[in-house]
Amino acid sequence: LTQQSHNRNSAVLPPPASVDALVNSVCQTACSGAYRHPQLHGHVAYGTAGFRMRADAGQMDYIMFRMGVLAALRSRSLHGQAVGVMVTASHNPEHDNGVKLVEPNGDMLPVEWEPIASGLVNALDTELRNHLHVLLSTLHDSEFITTAQFVARRGRVLVGHDSRKSSPSLAEAVAAGVRACNPAGTDEADDEQLAVAEQLGVLTTPQLHYIVACTNNPAYGRPSLSGYAEKLAGAFVRLAERRSLKGGGGAGPRSVHIDAANGVGAGALAQLAPLLGEHLRLVVHNSGDGELNYRCGADFVKVQMRFPEGRGLQFEPGQRWASFDGDADRIIYFYCDSEGQFQMLDGDKQAALLAAYLIGRIRAAGLNLNTGLVQTAYANAESTRYLAEQLGVAVACVPTGVKHLHKRAKDFDIGVYFEANGHGTVLFSDRARSAILAVAADSEGEAGEKVEAARELRLVMDLINETVGDAVSVLLAVEHALAEAGWGAAEWNACYTDLPSRQLKVSVANRSAVTTTDAERRCVLPEGLQPVIDDLVAATQRGRAFVRPSGTEDVVRVYAEGATRELADQLALQVAEAVHRLAAGVGPLPSIE
Predict the structure, then answer these.
(1) What biological-process terms (Gene Ontology) are attached (predicted)?
(2) Which of 52, 80, 449, 493 is the most exposed place for a label (fewest CB within 10 A)?
(3) Which residues are tagged catalytic?
(4) Cβ-count burial of 247 within 10 angstroms (0-12 exposed, 13-18 middle, 19+ buried)?
């Protein structure tokens, strides 16, 4: 990003005759552009995953256009700070696609803006002009946007997309939405432009979050794909060199096999691998020669609890494997044990490993920091017990959705959050960062254990992508923690034993008829369903079960645990039958392959 383009994009705009004139101008140009992107769907809702649906036959084009408009407005409401738009459907099948917005600090779109996004997308074409006028006037009059913010600086939107066939054209529709906010006849060099779109091309979702954060805060890193790779690899290599000097981490080079789900993660790994040198060998499979997410990837491995499929895949005992999802924001580790059986190391196990490592380093550095771990109801009961009883970590449970985990993790000095599906990261508060840097800068001397531990933590902070769950960043953090412990996959897995679990989906007429409480662990509606679940759980040895409505489709998700595989499967099927019977199930009952 050149200084010239930065200066142009952040330039103060000449004030319009009035805010009303600006509102009218935006409404007129945006609606003119919207005629080329007609609405094709009924009601859709923006959630944790943004908007996501089937994308063939141009079904998402109008959504992308309107999200471009919204992104431009969001950037302008934040004094022209850059925001991001990512076109991806993550772990969904290749025929799907989606879109989500990224905040200037790399966070997700604030919850209070989600209904604004939904309202804009759901407005009928014939009502769009009036809807935009009301929206812009409301934003101007509300706490979201002041007159100074509204007229001060040009909006800046960074657009990225994954490798799906539908993604390039949908990313262009986003850019068209951004441009549609500009007065007719203006171009990129025109000072009267209200917003500009910058196409970043194919990249992972975490890379876009990182670049947006760096664009607004250069202290976080260099805002480019090479800057991303160099920051992560540089921290990992320096940690490995420190470990080598102190004679730890076992002998010989380490390697890990990666199932990239035929998604964008393969490209990120290709750029990273040469920078790691002899410290870690990345063996990448499913790098794009097959269908995206089809019988491979993190979601397939987690839900099906089996090895991924792909050309030439062979799983040898002793090998460490990891599966990414399609946009590389989830990671699931697994391995083949000595008896040839599949063993999974999911988000719970990753959280336990990283929490144990961090607590050890924090204590070694003599730091008094409040460390906590955030989970959802999907976390295995044994993981929660291990964290609380063995590690002494404060454990919080929140509803499903990264936005809930990320928010709760900010309550700790060091907050580790992971969903069982492998989406997670570590957050360091300003207090924690200052405390670590202060000890690391101490001139006590090279032999000082506290100083050395703090310097290690300083590098770990660079290794972690705090903006969002990042499969590449977590891969490197896990590999570092394993090397420090001198562990392979089997030793890691032995820290605790998961209870067998099973997940099922029940199709229902209306998912909104099912509501929950207590971080989704208890069902409120329909009446009578929770007592049935309680009775089934009580009759199952070490049983636990809950149900929750999907956020994207008319299904109710069932989760069950039991002392044995048979008991977990039986409990899941029994709860699924109760959901089907009491929550207006449609179609056949779910079964287990």
Answers:
(1) carbohydrate metabolic process; UDP-N-acetylglucosamine biosynthetic process
(2) 449
(3) 90
(4) exposed
Q: Which of residues 306, 327, 345 is at a domain's end?
A: 345
Written as six digits, the tokens of 116 are 């604004």
pLDDT tens, 511-569? 999 999 999 999 999 999 999 999 999 999 999 999 999 877 789 999 999 999 999 99
User: Rounded distance, CA 411 to CA 415, Å?
Assistant: 7
Q: How many domains does the chain have?
A: 4
> Is 226 marked within a binding site?
no
- Residue finishing a domain among 305, 329, 345: 345
Q: Mean pLDDT, to the nearest integer, of 90-94? A: 93
Quick one: 72 and 54 in the same domain? yes
Q: Is residue 9 part of a domain?
A: no
pTM of the model: 0.90
Q: Which residues contact 386 (CB under 8 A, 6 or more apart)?
A: 352, 495, 496
In a domain, 219, yes or no: no
Expressed in angstroms, the distance from the first to the final Cα of the chain is 51
419 annotated binding-site participant: yes
Q: Do both 318 and 195 map to the same domain?
A: no
What domain range is 577 assigned to? 501-583
How does pLDDT run across 387-417, given as a tens digit for each residue? Answer: 999 999 999 999 998 889 999 999 999 999 9
146: region left, alpha or beta (phi > 0 left; psi from -120 to 50 alpha): beta
Place of tokens 């409480």: 517
Say if residue 143's pLDDT is above 50.
no
Residue 552 annotated in ligand binding: yes
Q: Average pLDDT for residues 311-325, to the nearest whole number?
A: 95
